Description:
48% of the residues lie in helices and 8% in strands. By secondary structure, the protein is mostly helical. Strands 1-2 form a two-stranded parallel sheet. It is elongated.
Amino acid sequence: MKTCRPVISASVFWLVSAMQAAGAAGDAWQMSNLFEPSPAQIVREQKGRVMIYHGLKDTDVNRAMDEQFERVETMMFTGTIVTDDTGRPLRDPETGVKYFPIHK
């Protein structure tokens, strides 16, 4: 059984690394699609497709509103992360969770 521990540890390390890389790749894909859409993406938007962007920083959403205004009707932003003046995510003081605004 002692030989299983290193294999399990290595497997967990690999899985966590892969998940982090996938998250980073997903973020990069969203940013690329938002600010440098392919001609195919533009065609899909012109046909009515709405793209949902999740987990972007508020500064990125504001930038999109300024730079991609003609495409705004094809965008939906969910789980927007509110940041401070330095660009760091604001966190709930009690839980430490990133702050997502709830509009009333």
